[in-house]
Amino acid sequence: MKNFKFLLLLLIVTSCNAPRATYDYDQKMEFTSINTYQIYPDLKSNLSQLDEQRMINVLNSEMNEINFSSSEIPDVYLNFYSTSYEEPSRNNIGIGVGGSGRNVGVGVSGGIPLGGSNTYLRVTFDFINVKTDALIWQAIVDSPFARNGSPEERENQLRAIVQKALEGYPPNK
């Protein structure tokens, strides 16, 4: 029973930090015919140079996992760009004072935030049809991101973001 409580707590804590994704796509596009890609030539990712290279390496690895191959004459360009934002901590301690007497109640309460704000990374992935230069698929992933993490931690975070994005490809029509 003690292990069950610990497992439940661990599940709750880790589920709050999981990447969240939204997907959109061109409904007229036939995605089964797309199997080659190339990173967008004019990439402006807004990531640091090291994180950008990590992201490209992770993308190449994960694209191979879903049976895409890199090509000089691709079917799609794969573009990605990011923004970061901070969200205030939702953890706080509540303090309250109250009193009552003769069917009258009075109360005052307030919250004291714990910890600092959380940094999130929003990465947008675009598949652009090379022939028509049109956007055919897009994933937007929001994920906690530790900018002061070790290179291995940052790569693992980027891998989780890419995997979450590619879960929605190909789209279910």
Question: Explain this structure to me?
Answer:
- There is one protein chain.
- The protein is α/β, with parallel strands linked by helices.
- The protein has a single domain, classed as 2-Layer Sandwich (Double Stranded RNA Binding Domain).
- It contains three helices and eight strands.
- A six-stranded mixed beta sheet has the order 1-8-7-4-2-3, with helices on one face.
- A hairpin with a 4-residue loop joins strand 7 (118-129) and strand 8.
- Helix 2 packs across helix 3 (151-166).
- The radius of gyration is 22 Å and the shape is elongated.
- The protein starts with a helix and ends in a 7-residue tail after the last helix.
- Mean pLDDT is 84; it is low at 6-15.
Structural descriptors:
alpha/beta, two-stranded antiparallel sheet, 3 helices, 6-stranded mixed β-sheet, Double Stranded RNA Binding Domain, 173 residues
Write down the oligomeric state: single chain
Helix count, DSSP H or I runs of 4 or more residues: 3
- The percent range for helix content is 25-40%
Runs with pLDDT <50, length 5+? 6-15
Strand order of the largest sheet: 1-8-7-4-2-3
Distance linking N and C termini = 43 Å
Order of helices and strands: HEEHEEEEEEH
CATH architecture group name: 2-Layer Sandwich
The average pLDDT value, as a whole number, equals 84
Radius of gyration: 22 Å
Q: Strand count, sense and closure of the main sheet?
A: 6 strands, mixed
Number of domains: 1
The rough form would be described as elongated
Indicate the structural class.
Answer: alpha/beta
* CATH topology label: Double Stranded RNA Binding Domain
In CATH's first tier, which class applies?
Alpha Beta
Instruction: Tell me the β content.
Output: 35-45%
How many β-strands, per DSSP? 8
